């Protein structure tokens, strides 16, 4: 193919079937495929790629995609980080978009760079107003926060709402959410809708108004750890000790504790100590959403549901994959928004690295170590 024909060829986007265990999401859904095809983009979907999210191949073909080998496409979009075998299937010069774990799995980035692949990590998209439509961390955190409350309600030995019956009145459950980013705020809102009496805590005091706007109380421990980019900074040893002391006292008064606190690239901070669990009422529940980073609870066993001191401690991994339909829909919109930023008026791939969003989300590209 000569250079002129190569330039006229439409951008091809490949959507492989996710290979990770229990990963049911898919990177693009038919509605988004239809939009991309309308821009002149060719979309190639691997057979069965959407089955985990209950999307048959026929819906993709109806949206304008073809079913075939996605790995030879100019752009390959995934949800989970690619395996070594998958990276080996990418053509040199290809572009990959997905969750790539650049801080916690640097070997993936090294492998992509060695393969000559230009890669954009969804978790590296800056949290600025213009990039909100591309913020996959937030879209998936919403799913996790919602599902965490349902898991807590399922494992609880007590009702969430107040009930008035002929046999008397049952008090509402009390729920504490530790870490009120996107997942935490969704957890507070969901627990409130289920009728629980809700309280939120975060080391960033500026989020107190957001907590109160959801009808929840704010737990003020007097510690400020506001950081950059919407994340909390790491606490000093003295601050951490004081925080744990005050949290231990507070936690024992709640029926449900949901933890979501993460520090990018580091082990999750310990917020719920073994002593705090020991002080909780029998039948209480802790749902730890930081299990993939070691957990916020000292007694967490990542990926497991255990009972310690008559308290259930659940640490589900990859909760968004348990709601693959809506999680995929939201993620696909995020990917599409990022792709739109890379395409020129004719639908050709032409990323402008003077753009802050593309510059910061690109973790490897030819001629530059990201």
From TrEMBL:
Region Disordered, residue ranges: 1-21
Top-level taxon: Bacteria
EC number: 7.1.1.1
Keywords for the protein's UniProt record, in alphabetical order: NAD, NADP, Nucleotide-binding, Oxidoreductase, Translocase
Residue ranges constituting the Alanine dehydrogenase/pyridine nucleotide transhydrogenase N-terminal domain according to the UniProt record: 14-144
Molecular functions (GO terms): NADP binding; oxidoreductase activity; proton-translocating NAD(P)+ transhydrogenase activity
Signal sequence coordinates: none
GO BP of this protein: NADPH regeneration
Catalysis performed (reactions): NAD(+) + NADPH + H(+)(in) = NADH + NADP(+) + H(+)(out)
Start and end residues of each Alanine dehydrogenase/pyridine nucleotide transhydrogenase NAD(H)-binding domain: 153-315
Main enzyme class: translocase
Matching InterPro entries: AlaDH/PNT_N (IPR007886), AlaDH/PNT_NAD(H)-bd (IPR007698), NAD(P)-bd_dom_sf (IPR036291)
GO annotation, cellular component aspect: plasma membrane
Function in brief: The transhydrogenation between NADH and NADP is coupled to respiration and ATP hydrolysis and functions as a proton pump across the membrane.
Annotated protein name in UniProt: NAD(P) transhydrogenase subunit alpha part 1
Organism annotation: Pseudonocardia bannensis
Organism phylogeny: Bacteria, Bacillati, Actinomycetota, Actinomycetes, Pseudonocardiales
